[in-house]
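Q: How would the structure tokens look for this protein?
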Amino acid sequence: MAVNKITSQLNRFTAIGAIALVATTVGLSIPAVQSQSQNVIKVDGSSTVFPITEAVAEEFQKKGSGRVTVGISGTGGGFKKFCRSETDISNASRPILAKEIAACKQAGVQYIELPVAYDALTVVVKPRNNWVKSLSVAELKKVWQPATQGKIKNWNQVRQGFPSAPLKLYGAGADSGTFDYFTEAIVGKAKSSRTDYTGSEDDNVLVQGVSRDRGALGYFGYAYYAAKLLLWCSPSTQKH
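A: Here is the predicted structure in token form.
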């Protein structure tokens, strides 16, 4: 697994690495597929898939086919609701787990799993952070592994030559499929992570956190990086 350097800069944050490609899927309950005449279609789950689902929902509603609600509770949180028949469609940034399959089966929930896109996880810092150009997988593991909780608090502990500046971490919440993938790819074990960081299943929260702090380091789906690239690169609105 390698972290590839990305040189594009935003006025809020800079991408310093993209970690492989992650398949994003949606799970559709059989009743929802068979009966599209219901007034409200409920969708929940991964924030990574949210931009796609939101766009599709808007087009669907323009045709007057019904109302669609789209929530962001993370892949794991979405599957919990889905297997309790609280939602019709579950967005996911990873395949459904064996325990989730069992929960759906026990509740009598039948579903169809459809891949809809590929995404990349992006490691980012604010552009005013002028000392980080790239980070190795080993350095990321050093930062995020459980053993370093409460110990690595400054950038000079990450690499010799970095300044003695506070290190503020932002990452996916424990119910997120992004969290599962990042911890497995970087730390070596899914769900193995230090917990003294700002975590959220909503990538927008992470984007805002990194954008406000020069010493921040975060990770989230590339779609949110790309969206902000388009929004924040206008010279008339650029702020550092």
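The chain is about 30% helix and 25% strand.

Residues 83 and 104 are 4 Å apart (CA to CA).

Upvote if useful.
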